[in-house]
Hints:
Number of domains: 2
Shape: elongated
Strand content: under 5%
Structural class: mainly alpha
Order of helices and strands: HHHHHHHHHHHHHH
Low-confidence stretches: 320-350
Oligomer: single chain
Mean pLDDT: 81
Amino acid sequence: MSLNEEALIARRVAGWRRLEKLVTQSASGIQRLAGDEVVEFVRLYRAASSDLAYMRSHSSNRDMTTYLNALVGAAHAALYRRQSKGFLSAVSNAAHRAAETVRRSAWAIWLGVALFLGGAVVTHALLTVRPDLKETVIAEEMKANFDEWKKGGFEQRTTGQAIAMTSFYAMNNPRAGVMTNALAVATFGLGTAYIEWTNGMLVGALSSEMASVGKLGFLLASLVPHGVSEIGGLCVTGAGGFVLGRAAIMPGRRRRADALAIAGVDAFYLLVFGLVMIGLAAPIEGFVSFNPSVPAWLKVALGAATFLGWWCLVLRYGGSPKPSNTPAKIASDKASISGPVDRSAVSSGM
């Protein structure tokens, strides 16, 4: 062993031992280390990497080279190990990302809501002024359903019937959300505009019919409890089309393909968030909305509470960024591990 190698070992051995200890402490995850320990870990890792590079090119001491190679490999694995997350943490992070996407895409969602309400208001006003157009606007297959609504009451459901209807809504309504999203994405939002407007027309025609028999309040009280989540979910799933359409027309400084790729990720999160909304509307529709035992004021209160709940969810998870000063983040910020090996720490003393 040369004098240079002996001097190197004498100077570095304390750091190597310390790195060994930190690697052992981080066996279950580098987040176990304190922030200053992570910074020290990275510094010692870089120094050991430089020492290993020197020993490989200048030393014939295979035992020392093997030792450093194993130490550097273990430290590298500890730094780059993918940290496992608990189920609740994964759900929380997914909700945060989805709500953030909804928040960022609020313009597209409100555009869908405006189209829906526009179709409802225009159709209601048109049929109020021109009731003779009812035969043209209301499809033949919907007339029997409208007549049932105009009776102003629902038959009492048993618990079994309510569960069965909840299952039906839980399977059928998300399917409509997926179709809305697929059509919206395929048409860059034009399909969304069509669906929202025509659905609004249907509600507007029904509201006009109910108003003609003095039961408009009954209709609204029956639709609000589940409608907040169901109609809102359809607007959210369809918003992906508007997001993609804007990316195609106005890609900004990105290439159009890159802008569409990013918008596609947003469209996926909008789909998932919207489907969750639609799915949660199913039990409300099955047990509350069409239940004659639930008073109208309670249905309206539930609808208002549901709207407030979704609003708070978006604000809470979309507006409160996760703290970024975690140990792993400090490691990333304080050192560029993937950069070139710094040989000066070794060569300066040789």
